[in-house]
Amino acid sequence: PQTIYLKDYTPFGYTVEEVHLTFDLAPSATRVTSRIRFAPTPEAVDKTFFLHGENLSLISAKIDGEAVKPNPTDQGLTCDVPNVPFTWEAEVQIDPAANTALEGLYQSNGMYCTQCEAEGFRKITYYPDRPDVMSVFTVRINGPHPVLLSNGNPVASGDGWAEWHDPWPKPAYLFALVAGELVAHRDTFETMEGRKVDLALHVRAGDEGKCAFGMQALKDSMKWDEDVYGRAYDLDVFNIVAVDDFNMGAMENKGLNIFNASAVLASPETSTDSNFERIEAIIAHEYFHNWTGNRITCRDWFQLCLKEGLTVFRDSQFTADMRSEPVKRISDVIVLRAHQFPEDQGPLAHPVRPESFQEINNFYTATVYEKGAEVIRMLKTLVGDAGYKTALDLYFERHDGDAATIEDWLAVFEEATGRDLTQFKRWYSQAGTPRVAVSDSFEDGTYTLSFAQHTPPSSATPDPQAQVIPIAVGLLSPDGDEVMPTQILELTQDSQSFSFPGLSAKPVPSILRGCSAPVELEHTPDNAFLLAHDTDPFNRWEAARNLAKASLLGTITGGTAPDGGWLDGVAGLLSDDTLDPAYRGYVFAMPGQSQLAADLHQAGTTPDPDAIWAASEVHRKALADRMADVLPDLYARHQVDAPYAPDAAQAGQRALGNTVLSLLSLLDGGDAAQAQFDGATNMTQQLAALAYLIRAGRGDAALAQFEAQWKHDRLVMDKWFGLQVIEADPDDAADTAKALTLHPDFNWKNPNRFRATLGTFSGHHAGFHAKDGSGYTLLADWLIKLDPVNPQTTARMCSAFQTWRRYDAIRQSMIGKELERIAAAPNLSRDTTEMITRIRE
Ligand code: DPP
Ligand code: ZN
């Protein structure tokens, strides 16, 4: 496959003044007629008239009404065109029914829908399918469906047709079309500019009862973006459509967001509290893209973080405002460390702004999204809230309507704040997680903290340079009072010291408060002290986590018993009713097993997945034993009597209640879990109880009951598939997953079901890494089978192998063979080829 480089960027030689599209829908023979007004750009160097196109049957092409014969190329066509403005007309035929890759126009349960980001529009018609080509679209849809939707505002409609016009110039990746038998949940919103917007959430019949929450989340997002960023919505309608077959979570098409059903449909009976929170965040994310992504888009796909990092940052601010800031920060950091750090530290490492790719779909990564958001968070920390606001206002003012770059983004910060961001820009250009070593000293009342930063080299960044690292630090006195509230230290050199005079005793430092930078600390803090006294909720949680980690690693490598300090500290916090229950739930949560494997590897020890599993079990049991006396009362006190609400307060109660139940189940053989399962009135209670019953070895009856109850509900059944896999013992996980693939409801072409089963399996650390290699073979078999059907989802799941070099020689050799087997599959997609090649490097 061909490699595309950022440095090779050249503008398209033509502007697109307007686009008219007509769709005559038919499952296997949809006709797409385009009429596009092009004008040569006088200053353009490259005047090649190249239009992208894939899997299109060209029926006719005309320029200014005269038939022409374009020259086909392997990725589109070229054509001789006049050196003055002209009208291009083409008619193509496509086959949505055969489109299993779910890119371009495809069908899901008989409904037509599209996914064009990043490069799906070229599967719909010939077009300069690149984000810097923006135009105004008018779309006519002819089809016998009651609902016919496209971007922008409705113009007119009649029996079997509808016409849409989007006044906002946009790149083709934001194009969308939906046609089907859908029911709408409607509402309205009045913007701060006084525009009345008709809102609709379109779903399959039967899903009407799962719309109210998503609609409220949309209205909350619209209001929040006005209040916090001063951004109002800009069309007369905002449509959201729920689709069962979808590769990603959701898509921000202008005025017509398309959502994976799992990312929008919610009801208390069928969705957990976590589902509700995730849905609220994704609705916000896609809505916020209207300004950060759509009004200001990306010049090229290397700039993906321009819209994604910023929009993830914005949605995390929103969730923090709607719920709890510390809890949101903790959960974001858990995700960052679980997904982005391994990427940054393995063969898939790439900068937040990559410099080359073969398949752009492979770069919708934790690095672009999550690290991209962290970079913006650091920028805000460095320039302050007021500086950030001035810079963002300038960004919107200056770049509205543009396809922009990271250089544009940083320039507004430099101009608005006077700060030189030359060094800061390395966060966009260098791969790798910086490691920061900490040492300290105390003399004559002056405390000195010294930092040394070091980023391990990688093939993406062979020679990393020092980064600008904002380190939030507070100091506590030996008796636990805060003697210095949080200050931001700016680490810019390889090594640097900071002094704090006027102290009467050597303080205890609390470093990297709020995880102020996406780095790893090399430092042994006084965790027990910080767990008891830190005023920063993030670092207090971090202290608990560090204690748990040290204790687990001791058990794994030295067979030591769980640490009493950790048990005392966590037991104390769990029972401390002055603390937010949701926060306490996180204090209990132990480091993930894959995370422990990473820690061991970093410390020079080869991780043994079975030993990690066993140590985690021993620790859970030790905590349950330690708290045996208080658990029943703690459980009783965190039951919610009020009618179910998916808000943070109730969710926190249930989260803590379920955490306690997980411990109780280790002591009572699952009796309390059975009682909760039998009496459950919402999915949060039901699913947690089911998990603990499976763990207690008595899940069969409950699983059967659950299946009978929910057989008709695809999203709930995804949970049923996933839960059995993730709760299986390591020895059984592969067999469990394999058996589930034989279940009549295992529709492997549905990405949600595939991920629920095989994706969940690859996240079962000890099961996936089973000694006999059965886990590797199972996943490889399925990836080889899925690749010809859906390359994007296949390639994404290859990342399960990215950490393979951590493990022992036998496991590495088994994984190596599976990677080789995948690589050798006939006609392997560009997507999967690129992923496997990079992982094997
Ligand atoms: N739909 C994906 C997202 O919103 C890609 N833009 O992140
Ligand atoms: Zn996004």
UniProtKB/TrEMBL annotation:
Question: According to the UniProt entry, what is the EC number of this protein?
Answer: 3.4.11.2
Domain spans labelled Peptidase M1 alanyl aminopeptidase C-terminal: 526-839
Q: Which family does it belong to?
A: Belongs to the peptidase M1 family.
**Aminopeptidase N-like N-terminal domain ranges (all copies):** 44-174
Q: Which molecular function terms from Gene Ontology are attached? A: alanyl aminopeptidase activity; metallopeptidase activity; zinc ion binding
UniProt xrefs under InterPro entries = Aminopeptidase_N-like_N (IPR045357), Aminopeptidase_N-like_N_sf (IPR042097), PepN_Ig-like_sf (IPR038438), Peptidase_M1 (IPR001930), Peptidase_M1_dom (IPR014782), Peptidase_M1_pepN (IPR012779), Peptidase_M1_pepN_C (IPR024601), Peptidase_M1_pepN_C_sf (IPR037144)
One GO term (biological process):
proteolysis
High-level lineage = Bacteria, Pseudomonadati, Pseudomonadota, Alphaproteobacteria, Rhodobacterales
Q: Which residues form the Peptidase M1 alanyl aminopeptidase Ig-like fold domain?
A: 432-523
Its domain of life reads Bacteria
Q: Output this protein's name.
A: Aminopeptidase N
